[in-house]
Amino acid sequence: MSLRLSEKAKKVVAVVAPSLGAALGGPLGGLAGQILGGLVSGGKVADLEEAILTQKPETLLALKKLEQDYILKLEELGVEQHKVEAADRSSARDLAKVNMRPQMLLSLLFIGGYFIILSAFFVGKIEISPELKEPFLILLGVITANVPSIMQFWFGTSSGSQRKTDILAEQAVK
């Protein structure tokens, strides 16, 4: 259902079912729209909007129930995401049981080469012509950005670390 509710109807949904109201304008709007579509039979937006705007007690109660269904659906999706992540970690551990020499060699070459180039650059043993300086610095930035990935491969990262990164990203947007 393509959901094009009026601003007034969206405000009612936001007051009665805050989670659904917040989702309507965001990336989960499609899921919220599907769930709201269950409020009326027939699936017409005009009927849905009329049902919301009349604010009958049974409609508001049904809207509250739909919000609970929405929250449960989000939790189920979160559980599925955790299962996918666990399977990914498991397959990485299975890979480690077989043969880690190629990964070790590539990691050592990458990190070793990175620090050799970096130290030679800072000590002044590498002289870069002016026309190549900018591409060299871009390449050095790309290599530097990939060092944490290699470290995380060997030493791991946690879901808490990912959560921290997400929170910092949210704060940067605000």
From TrEMBL:
The chain crosses the membrane at residues 104-124, 136-155. The lineage of its organism: unclassified sequences, metagenomes, ecological metagenomes. It comes from sediment metagenome. This is Conserved membrane protein. The keyword Membrane applies. Keywords: Membrane, Transmembrane, Transmembrane helix.
